[in-house]
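Pasting as-is:
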Amino acid sequence: MNVCVIIPAAGKSTRYGESDKLAQDLGGRTVLLRTVEIFTKREEVRSIIVAGPPDEFDAFRDKYGPTLGFHGARLVKGGATHRWETVKAALAEVPADATHVAVHDAARPGVSKDVLDRVFGAAMKLDAVIPVVPINATIKRVSDEVADISGSDDDALADMILGDEGKLHIPARTVVQTVDRRGLVEVQTPQVFTAELLRRAYSQINLDGATDDAGLVERLGGSVHAVEGDVRNLKITRPADLSLMRAILNLPPPAERPVHLRF
């Protein structure tokens, strides 16, 4: 089994805020480096491709290139808008002798050895394998329309003085359906495919709307098999997720800079 790992890292991460979530400190190393390191320890993995933002690729390469290169990872330009564009660009750089391709989120540095054992083990027999976790919470569908719950009429005097400043605004949407959660799962990564199958999936004419690689295999009519994931294999999306990942990995937050260096 010769696996090439693609790590899409071209997204703008708007939900995280203005800072680069992949550059955040995770036990003295960046989130991106932590993610790459996971796969350098796997015997099946023979190559790693990290796809960065095309518009800022030089800066991305300057920031991450030396450390990622030390671990044998290649940097390529990803897509400008959609995740599937990034994966497709990286797929063109996969070595010809790779039998399988694994696609893993750059912001999932907590995937465990057990999950990788299950995914890679199943991929030796199956063409498309994804890790999943069951959805245990109640799931509801809400309306697109948003009602703005503002301050009460009792706040009229304050509104005259302050205007909208300090006024309570609570967006609220109507629940239209409670969804039956039986059989529903949350999909994680890495998703592993035979290289030939993933190339065929990405050769389809219309890739719009694809939110993961397995979905494109499904469009092709291929079978995707799910194995047990791990709730600790979370994707860092918002700052609170970074704190949770540090707790999962038992890593301390970065030490504060000395007072005389803070300004």
